[in-house]
Design goal:
By secondary structure, this protein is of the alpha/beta class. The protein is built from twelve helices and eight strands. It has an eight-stranded mixed beta sheet with strand order 3-2-1-4-5-6-7-8, with helices on both faces. Helix 7 (about 165-170) packs across helix 12 and helix 8 crosses helix 9. Helix 1 (about 15-20) links the parallel strand 1 (about 5-10) and strand 2.
């Protein structure tokens, strides 16, 4: 029925990253893309060797799976352009932050399969944390199809949509918290005499190694922390200071604040 398998609307950083990974598991001949910026569209098309559409409606006409990778401010325009073309054979996939499944569904007077994903910037290096939610019409086969695409850019977890604001506060905004921690650790090293480039490399690798230990060992972070903090040593001394400065409380409050901000901004209900 469809000439193409996957159509991607929006070829910015996330859209082009998902396109790149998709070409590893889907034939390029089965993918079509569109972006309102013609220069960007041509550049991405040339780089990955995929066909371009002349507008959003053409993407919907030709593709079974429609990945909408645009900013929330313009998704209504996209949905308006494709709504008359969409049938119950389509699967809509959205990564637009804060735009609910129910809002997307209002544009289609049909039982359309809609999948919503909250990912993060680490998708650019294949280490994203992505959470996938779907409506009641989505089949297991189509959900697994989408999951396969996002597994190519990192970890994926299936959750009910009601959790996505908290996901935004934790893993959506989370990379920025970690960047700040890395920068601060590096500054500490510089203060104690390390060259800036060395301090930054050590800080980044330390965070990477610690995160990998949590994921690989499946141990609770407190258990791993206790293995490092020997009695009367340097680590327990530093941990005592961090606790007294309320690092734990500050991070918890940061996630809470970002979650509540996401709830407040989520007007697409």
């Amino acid at each position: 029925m469809f000439k193409k398998e996957l159509g991607i609307i929006g070829t910015g950083k996330m859209g082009s990253t998902l396109l790149e990974q998709s070409t590893k598991i889907i034939s390029k001949e089965k993918i079509i893309i569109y972006d309102i910026n013609q220069e960007t569209l041509n550049e991405v098309s040339s780089k990955y060797g995929v066909e371009t559409a002349k507008n959003n409606a053409e993407i919907a006409e030709k593709s079974k799976y429609i990945l909408i990778a645009v900013v929330p401010q313009v998704i209504d325009n996209v949905l308006s352009e494709i709504k008359d073309v969409i049938s119950e054979d389509h699967v809509i996939i959205s990564i637009a932050a804060g735009v609910s499944i129910s809002h997307i569904g209002k544009y289609f007077n049909k039982n359309i399969e809609i999948i919503r994903i909250m990912s993060n910037v680490a998708a650019l290096i294949g280490e994203a944390a992505s959470v996938i939610s779907s409506n009641e019409f989505v089949t297991h086969e189509n959900l697994e199809y989408v999951r396969k695409i996002f597994e190519a850019v990192g970890l994926t977890i299936l959750l009910e949509e009601r959790h996505l604001n908290a996901v935004t506060g934790l893993s959506g905004s989370g990379p920025a918290y970690i960047f700040l921690i890395i920068e601060s650790l590096a500054d500490g090293g510089v203060k104690m005499g390390l060259p800036r480039d060395v301090a930054l490399k050590l800080a980044a690798q330390t965070v990477l190694g610690a995160a990998k230990m949590v994921l690989d060992t499946k141990s609770h972070p407190a258990e791993l922390r206790d293995k490092v903090a020997t009695p009367g040593g340097t680590t327990i001394t530093a941990l005592h200071l961090l606790e007294s400065q309320k690092l734990r409380a500050s991070l918890i409050t940061a996630v809470e604040a970002a979650t509540r901000k996401s709830q407040a901004l989520n007007s697409k209900e």
